[in-house]
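Thread: "does anyone have the structure for this chain?"

Original post by V.I.:
We have the sequence but no experimental structure in hand. Need at least a predicted one for the grant figures.
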Amino acid sequence: MKIKSFIPFALLLTVGMVSITGCQKGDLIDNPNLAASSGTVPASLILNNLTSNLIKSDEYPFNLSSRGNQYFLSNYAYYWGNNNYNYGSTEDSYNVLKYAIALQAQSTTQTGNQTNKYYALGQFFKAYAGIWLSQRVGDIPFSQAGNPAITKPKYDLQHDVYKSCLTLLNSANSIIAPLAAATPNARLDNGDIFALTYLQWQKLINTYTLRVLISLSKRVNDPTATDLNIATTFNTIVSNPATYPIMTSNSDDLIYVYNTTNTYPVYADGNAPYDNFGNVGLPYVSATAPNQDPRLLLVATPAPQQITGGKLPGDFTSYVGSDDNIPIGTLNSNSAGGQYSYISDFRYFVLPAAITGANAEPFVFIGYPELCFNIAEAINLGWVSGQSATTWYTAGINASLSFYKLSNGETLNITNLSGNTIGTATVNIPQFMTNVAYAGNNAAGLAQIFTQRYVAMFLNSGWESFYQWRRSVSTTNPNGLPTWSQGGAGIGTAAANNLIPRRWEYPSNEAAYNTANYNAALQSQFGGTDDPTKDTWLTK
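Reply from O.Q.:
Generated one for you, tokens below.
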């Protein structure tokens, strides 16, 4: 499935053709019936392309990210693929970078300045593109990427990519701030499919900056990273809402809502009838069932074997997750025997709702619940003073419950694999909140923050749960926060003792089109091989 783009293909001829990975596959001749490459393209049209093509194919719900985050496990490869982590080469963020650069160039030409709204958003999207790829692979071409005069851009150190992106984000906030102050509630531009206001875009920029900073948690005490001012910058943003406004509710989220044009992935991919081949992952069930989390009742079914054994449908102990360590053939036989909970047929698969995702959650690029947990984590780590981690942690959980439209005392229908109601359950939010009460600014509290952030991102936030989990892994906690399965045959990375990889391989065309710089980057980072089992600077 791909988000529909409303921008003409002809625009591809106007914005420069050097990818973020250095690929230039030949000379392009301008079509005499179209604007020349040096011509003018409305900035609003470029913004439309950026906002309507932001999701990559492996980030969709029920795609690789859902299995890679161990939310959803396939038990039959023919329909849902394997669960293993042998991903190979990553996609790239060339389209985002390319149009971000074009947006900056065209807005400068058309307005005569670099203090306009489009220039600010161009800086945001350029930073987004750089972080998106660097966190997947490591060092990348960035400072020279997109320059049509440089066909083989050098690789920047990952540290330098992050430093550049943080500078871009800070500049984007500074540029948009007076515009947001003048008309905070006006929609920024009709070309923005998310329909955000000036103030919401400013909040988004700063909220995303906090995500980038918290992703650097392993480098906060690294002498080579002191110039990034990780903790200090985080505290500055959180402590100065007038200068750095951040999201204040779910209404500020950057979300993509599915509809009849951009259909929900299970329908678009033709997998709507095959709900019986998908089970809920063990980490998600382990993070929700013991806490009597009502979100579990919405997204999953009780395990059939538990119901036939006499348990009630609303009994949280009737939910059983499938283990990613187990080979897919064994998962299939166990699932056929009723051992595991299934993904909710009613929520995700029943037609016609499965076409538009009417019962499902939208895709969240950057959201308020995540922000709350990121701030709670920073307070737990001692980065932020004068604020309460308990307050932010609780706000994150409540925001997630609101995202799922759950209210205390409501009656939920519990459905089976066929989508038929087999019982009911009453939502008890006070009991749930008691069960997950924050343990304090200690290791137990930190584990709770990671767990609740993971639950809040279920099937809706691409690979973000993996990035959060990956940086929690250490020699003393090899399975991360929350605990993920690895080490078994189902992981599929036998050369690495079936451990979850630490990164993707570089985009497949990089070795062919930017060979010397590519090989040098591999040598400096991974001893000469594009090794997915090795950490980049970000997560060492």
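V.I.: this helps a lot. The CA atoms of residues 257 and 362 lie 5 Å apart.
O.Q.: and Strands lie at 72-74, 254-256, 278-280, 363-366, 411-415, 421-426.
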